[in-house]
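Minutes, project check-in
Item: structure for the 386-residue chain
Input as provided by the requester:
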Amino acid sequence: MILIISIFALSIISCNSDTSSRYTCQPPDNINDGLNVGTLDEVNIDSALIVKAVNKIQQDKYEEVHSMLIYKDNKLVFEEYFKGHQFKWDASKHHDDLVAWDRNMLHNIMSATKSVTSVCVGIAIEKGFIKSVHQSIFDYLPEHQHLRADGKEKITIEHLLTMTSGLEWREWSAPYSSSDNPNIGIWYQDKDPITYILEKPPIDKPGTSFNYSSGNTIVLGEIIRNATKMTIDEFSYKYLFKPLGIDSSTWAVKYENGVDANNLKITPRDMAKIGVTFLNNGIWNGKQIIPEQWFLKSTRSFPGNNKIKVPGEDGENGYSYSWWVKPINSSGKRINMFYAMGWGGQYIMVIPKLNTVVVFTGGNYTRKSPAFKILKKYIIPAIEYT
């Protein structure tokens, strides 16, 4: 009897088990959130390779992966959560409490927020709140007209979206644990954040040179607030999240004067919804949520932004309207993808050729995220195995 019970127990172990060799992946739960669910087999994904990836994560071969989701052929077919640390800026490795992540827990997606802010700009233009990406940023910054000098008046909304404002901002020259990083230093001075950003000296002509700057996106958030008379929380909920059935997001961090610091907390499932909308050319459940032209601009590299070396990432990347663009080589074939990326391993990866969206969250704030390695070694080969 003991033997029979043991055999039965082994037969029902799922991906949530720590067992390294005997379990089967259970399909995601249908929670009526707008995402259809299915199985790996239904979309011809090799579950054995996905199981190997899960094993590596559970055995800490790939550390601090908090979630991994796969959506293919109009179905969420894989959803797994793991143990990992919550974020705390002033702690060792930026790690707070160790928790068991689950689908109901909001995750700070860090700079993947930039891609969501970009979508909000696109919707604001489509709704008539903003006339054009080619307008000067000062058209929507009435309290900062005194900074309209030294050529800065030529900075457009498009320049902010594409990280080509030309303003000095050395974000990649210092760790995010240091106040020498302007994205951290902004908290250690008495100036209004928008003033702090726009007082930076111009080092390039706007539109000519890529320079990664969270400051650019912070200014975009303020432009949305001034143009729409809504905070980005209010605007994103009304025009993006509510149509997608997302009701548990929060723009987690704001400066003392109310300026948004561009740090969105959201669930991995809701990250997948954003990716699925992009996979479907801006359409969600038959309705155009993201303007089609904005979708096209967001998924193709901005001229001159196609040979960017990102710290901690392999190869060269492109950058569009605050979305990254990258080719993946697999089995001798080139597969193009575009993605939102945040510090620590937050990703919304959209791979149109494979009709696939992959989502990761993580806590690798002081080491390279394993997300791309998992994608290239396990997920893409599992999709292509047939």
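Outcome recorded: The two ends are 41 Å apart (CA to CA).
No further action items on this chain.
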